[in-house]
Each structure stands twice: as C-alpha cells, then as structure tokens.
C-alpha cells in the first residue's frame, strides 16, 4: 500500500469531505482542508491527529481558487492527492418549474468548481510526475431520474471530465479516479430541500443508506494502490439500492 503524504480535500466541512479528512488523517497524511465554513473547518482540524492547513474557499470563485493554491506555503505545495468533493444538489422540481438560481449553483459548484481546483493543482502534479485526482461523482452521473435533470447533468459532466482528464494525462504518472456513490446519508438532502429537515429525513428511511465513511474508505483505497495500478471508476451502492430506479424498501431503525 502506498500512502500519500499531502492530501487536499474540497468541501471538507461536512459529509463525505469530512469523512475523507478523517480517513486520511488515520493514515498519517497531512491535510489541506478547503470549504466555505471556516469555523467548521477549525473544529474538524482540532479533532484530527495530523498537520492541517485550512483554506476558507468557495470553489465557484476562480480567482480565489487560483490565489489560494498559488499562495500555499512551501511546506504545503506538493499535493499528492486532490479529492474534488465540493458539490451539492438543489431542488427536485420538474425542469419547467425549476429555479435558475438552483441550476446555476449546481453547475458553478459541481462542474466549474471542480475545473477551477483541478486546473490550479494539476500543473504541479504534472511537473513532479506524480499525483492523484479523485472526483466524487454519483450514480446520477450514470443514470437520470425525474426532477434531477440539472443535477444529473452536472454529474454526467464530472464523469466526462474525469474520462477526458485520463486521456490528457496519459504518459504521466498522475492518476485519475472517480468514486460514484448511490444514496449516502449526509446533509445532501437537507441542502437539496433548502433546509426542510422533515423532507430530508424521509429520503433515508426506505433502506439503510451508505455512510460518508463508506465512501471515504473507497477514496482512500483508490489512492493507496501501487503505482502501476489505476482504479478508474468505483461505483458503490447500498445493498438495497440497485439503481436510481430500483431499490428494496426495508425500513431503517433510528
């Protein structure tokens, strides 16, 4: 197993991002944690038994992303792993009833934000001829469901960018992986439904969902393989979910 030294995680203040930070800390990695909520980042860093460098950052802001990466201290410049985790969904209305502001937020975060951070970090990886980019996709990047046209489009875009990046990096030792989960119990639905706790809670009651920690373990697995091994796409689902359309209602005890 090859353990990276320095890992950058975006969207690290909660959910899958936080779980990735915790998983890499257990491996002894130093961490650059990026998110919009500075207080949450500070709380997480205080609980981690490793060196951390915190970036209060909105990945939608290209200039801020460029400045943050260019301004990293020398000790924090040689990023071995980039986990492009920052992302969200907004709304579940049919497209003719959707809010353009929701669409813009999803596209600007899920697609453009991933591009801005990758563009800022990748030249250093290429120059060192080592590194690994992990894009957190979704089963929604493979299938489309009613009310999710724009979110699914954004995750299809992540999938296409991941595949294209692999081609662009062929001949280097920089690896690219995507980890595409099914239903994961995080703040995802709370964000999607604009803070409606009751509606968000019902999403996770049909069958036991994945935990953020399950996805983080997959990310760490991808990035700790021997140098000659590339995990290209890893789709991980709850046992009771076969696709975005097919699942087995079992109920969940809380």
Your description of this structure?
- By secondary structure, this protein is an alpha/beta fold.
- The chain has one domain (about 5-235): 3-Layer(aba) Sandwich (Rossmann fold), CATH 3.40.50.720.
- Helix content is about 40%, strand content about 15%.
- The protein has 8 helices and 9 strands.
- The chain has helices at about 15-25, 40-45, 60-70, 100-130, 150-170, 190, 195-200, 210-225; strands at about 5-10, 30-35, 50-55, 80-85, 130-135, 175-180, 185, 210, 235.
- The chain has a 7-stranded parallel β-sheet, sandwiched between helices. Strands 7-8 form a two-stranded parallel ribbon.
- α2 (about 40-45) links the parallel β2 and β3 (about 50-55).
- α4 (about 100-130) runs parallel beside α5 (about 150-170).
- The model has no long low-confidence stretch (mean pLDDT about 95).
Number of strands: 9
In the CATH hierarchy, what is the architecture at level 2? Answer: 3-Layer(aba) Sandwich
Which value, in Å, is the CA radius of gyration?
18 Å
Give the overall pLDDT as a whole number: 94
> Order of helices and strands, N to C?
EHEHEHEHEHEEHHEHE
